[in-house]
Amino acid sequence: MEFPYWNRTLGADHFYVSCAGLGYESDRNLVELKKNSVQISCFPVPEGKFVPHKDITLPPLARITRASHAPGNRTVRYLVRHNGAKDSKLANELRNDSDFLMESEPSNEMTLVERLGSSMFCLFEDGADISGIGEALRFGCVPVMVTDRPMQDLPLMDVLSWQKIAVFVGSGGGIKEMKRVLDRTCKDDECEGTRRLGVAASQHFGWNEIPQPYDSFYMVIYQLWLRRHTIRYPRREFV
After folding, report:
1. Arithmetic mean of pLDDT, 202-226
2. Which residue pairs, CB below 8 angstroms and at least 24 apart, start in 222-226?
3. Which residue has the higher pLDDT, 19 or 29?
4. Which of 120, 175, 210, 233 has the smallest number of CB atoms closer than 10 Å to its CB?
5. What is the pTM of this model?
């Protein structure tokens, strides 16, 4: 009775913000919240706390404040950000391969800008820290998502064609298979087009104190608008 608009649709025309996402709880109110309302979460979302057909994720907050640039001289083939790979067999292979520049600790802003701007590919392993994907796009470093599952919680899924701005590879074949896939699917000319699209898409990853057209705030609002009719439930009747 205290929230008549909520009761009208059991929350189907509401959204809530939960950075870590909600699980499936036994409390009836939380069940209705999880089932009916749009959840806005931080990217990436823990497994089991994201419903792809209705939920959305926030583009990660950029750590780099200086103006972007995407130089054409790519001297590093593969960059692996600090905590961008899990402590796994793949991470050990990456450390022992000279084609990969793997950060052992977080870089300062100037060093990070130089590394992003001079690298062809930025590797992100699913389950590790992949929040730097927006910065990779901004500086023309093509994101390579190492994952063995469909990634349905990527930011701005309704706005961006991720298959055109990133490369998705499995982890089972190790780095030899990864290199083969990248060489086959992203040749120099094709990668240049992928890179340009990524730099253009990066405008949607910017958060501003006063929202600007096409920035993260407006893109999140746009995705909410797209979901205005996603779920409709009958009004709860009180006895």
Report:
1. 93
2. 222/158, 222/159, 223/56, 223/156, 223/158, 223/159, 224/15, 224/38, 224/56, 226/158
3. 19
4. 210
5. 0.84
